[in-house]
Write a structure and sequence with these properties.
Blueprint: H1 2-6, E1 9-17, E2 26-28, E3 30-34, E4 38-39, H2 52-57, E5 67-71, H3 72-80, E6 94-97, E7 109-112, E8 116-123, H4 129-133, H5 137-140, E9 142-144, E10 150-152, E11 156-162, E12 164-167, E13 171-175
Parallel strand pairs: 5-6
Antiparallel strand pairs: 1-2, 1-6, 1-13, 3-4, 3-12, 5-11, 7-8, 7-13, 8-11, 9-10
Organism: Alicyclobacillus acidoterrestris (strain ATCC 49025 / DSM 3922 / CIP 106132 / NCIMB 13137 / GD3B)
Pfam families: MOSC
Protein name: MOSC domain-containing protein
């Protein structure tokens, strides 16, 4: 299975940003990723945490949530449950197709387009705010495995290692970290 993860090649379906702290982000033709900072012009850009709940806890924490990815396959799943979700509406910066984001280990590098490199730091931890967007959506993006462990399906977070412009249609190549692999945890 891990070899399958390493051979994945996906694509960028949509890119989005928001200059202010809004739940949804607006789709744009391209975004610029800045090493150590995140998405240029996005409210969550910076070396320290920008998510309001994290800032309230400790504003000096490193920003491990510079870029938010969601797989468009989740939108397909949610549609079958009666939800209508479009790229950017769940706050992601990059909507992907063809990559099992949730199955990647911590430290996986995503090579996006011609230059950008993002390292996956962990899972997005959806909060109750998601139900303000569409009622019942929080429980739809949470699940449990056969052992009763919580599964968070609302995407993954990462940090920018190398600058680059990201456009719709750009390829995404997966590079797994050295073993032993560490499973994704919420960040």
């Amino acid at each position: 299975m891990v070899r399958d993860l390493a051979s994945q090649v996906g694509e960028v379906v949509s890119v989005s940003l928001s200059e202010t702290h809004t739940f949804s982000k607006r789709p744009v033709p391209s975004i610029r990723l800045l090493a150590g900072l995140g998405v240029e012009g996005d409210a969550h850009m910076g070396t320290t945490v920008k998510h309001r709940s994290r800032v309230a806890q400790d504003p000096t924490q490193p920003n491990l949530r510079q870029v938010h990815f969601i797989h468009s396959e989740l939108f397909d799943e949610l549609r079958s449950g009666g939800f209508c979700i479009e790229p950017g509406q769940m706050g992601e910066n990059i909507t992907t197709r063809g990559i099992n984001l949730l199955g990647l280990p911590t430290g996986t590098k995503l090579y996006i387009g011609e230059q950008a490199i993002v390292e996956i730091t962990g899972l997005r931890n959806p909060c109750a705010q998601i139900d303000n967007f569409q009622s019942g959506l929080l429980s739809a993006v949470l699940d449990h495995d056969e052992n009763g462990n919580l599964i968070r399906k609302a995407g993954v977070m990462g940090i920018v290692l190398t600058d680059g412009e990201v456009l719709v249609g750009d390829p995404i190549r997966v590079s797994l970290p050295a073993k032993p692999y560490r499973p994704l945890e919420r960040v």
